[in-house]
Specification:
Radius of gyration: 21 Å
CATH superfamily of the largest domain: NAD(P)-binding Rossmann-like Domain
Mean pLDDT: 95
Shape: elongated
Strand order of the largest sheet: 3-2-1-4-5-6-7-8
Largest sheet: 8 strands, mixed
Number of strands: 8
Number of helices: 12
Low-confidence stretches: none
Structural class: alpha/beta
CATH architecture of the largest domain: 3-Layer(aba) Sandwich
Bound molecules: NADP nicotinamide-adenine-dinucleotide phosphate
Distance between the termini: 28 Å
CATH topology of the largest domain: Rossmann fold
Length: about 270
Amino acid sequence: MKIAFIGGGNMAEGMIAAVRRRRLAETGDIVVAEPQPCRRQLLIKKYRLRVVEDAGDAVPDAGLVVLAIKPQDLGGVLADLKDRLAPGQLLLSVVAGATLDALRGGHGAVVRAMPNINARGGTAVTLWTATGGVTPAQRETAAAFLGTLGHQLYTPDEKYLDMATALSGSGPAYVFLFIEALTDAGVHIGLPRTMAADLAVYTVSGSAALAVKTGAPPAQLREMVVSPGGTTAEALLRLEEGGFRGLITRAVVAAYEKSQGLGGKAKGG
Ligand SMILES: NC(=O)c1ccc[n+]([C@@H]2O[C@H](COP(=O)([O-])OP(=O)(O)OC[C@H]3O[C@@H](n4cnc5c(N)ncnc54)[C@H](OP(=O)(O)O)[C@@H]3O)[C@@H](O)[C@H]2O)c1
């Protein structure tokens, strides 16, 4: 499959790495449009891809055109792409807050997706939706592409996309902050930093892997760790006293409200 990426930043690089790893497209079938010369050089050097400066030059022949630009750049890019996209081409956007209405502008086949940076390791989770103009074959293309990034879920209801942005799109940043904090706490009680870092990161990845493997509710798994009157119960009390759950909820609500605000910036035209 021929894929054009518009924007060659962090998210595009993660998706390119995933697509190559899963061999969804050969190197020669991928083209990236990226205005920054240093990013273009990096992509050429690291992945040996064809890289162009203008979005319009990337799209001819591509079955799938992936928008991976910042919301504030969307209007200009959609204006560049107007009249350049053929009806058979699928436009797939990962731009936070960019609605199907904003993306559609004259092109019928549009997918709006919210992956996360874990695409770099093939362990992203992506929620996606599509316009009515996306054919069954194009849906399969979208599912195959997003499947290379990790786990993908389709929803017919676009309203969940801004919510996913706040939970899973931004989510890796919350988890990395938690890993940092856990590491610092380990250092605080006397562990060497590299040892604390290993213990923290494998604790988080192992706990997530167990939750995925068993499918058990997290509360049930947590109970397996908490013995009555024990060390874990003592720590959990401190977390509850500090408002841990409420704080996470307030953080996600703030990200959600911001994501809805981005809808205004990410208008096409
Ligand atoms: N990073 C994440 O974890 C994540 C997760 C989910 C979704 N997303 C979404 O993915 C999108 C990209 O995020 P990112 O983190 O990859 O941002 P990024 O690193 O800033 O990458 C965006 C790239 O697009 C380039 N660009 C700007 N205008 C362009 C144009 N006209 N044609 C082609 N390329 C252009 C930018 O160049 P300049 O720097 O010169 O402007 C930049 O290199 C955002 O909308 C974000 O909401 C990101």
